[in-house]
Specification:
single chain, about 110 residues, mainly alpha, 2 domains, about 80% helix
């Protein structure tokens, strides 16, 4: 398969450039933060998502962080709009719904 069909991000120089752009966006967040509106949050999120997408060490660090701090990790997943977070949330809701009828029938009174 030619490089053209794989996409631009398969080229190492492009990947390194996107990671550098991610670090630049994270670095300028304090400068954009005082501007009225949610600019700093958006810039930080964009930079963090670029770094997490294209570096293995950042992904491993993020996974360790989520295991140590599950509540903060779920907020980070929600803010980054991660598909894996959506899947986990839907799976938890489905398991909760499957367990709910069993629990409800346990509370019904038994005939005398």
């Amino acid at each position: 398969m030619s490089r053209r069909h794989k996409g631009w991000t398969s080229i190492p120089l492009v990947r390194h450039g996107l990671v550098a752009l991610g670090f630049l966006l994270v670095a300028i967040t304090p400068l954009v933060g005082p501007i009225p509106g949610p600019g700093g949050i958006i810039v930080f999120g964009a930079g963090l998502s670029l770094i997490l997408k294209y570096t293995g060490w950042a992904k491993r660090f993020y996974v360790r962080f989520k295991r140590r701090h599950p509540k903060k990790g779920s907020w980070a997943d929600w803010s980054l709009r991660r598909a894996s977070a959506r899947r986990r949330h839907e799976r938890a809701k489905a398991l909760e719904a499957a367990d709910a009828p069993a629990d409800a029938s346990a509370n019904l009174p038994v005939g005398d």
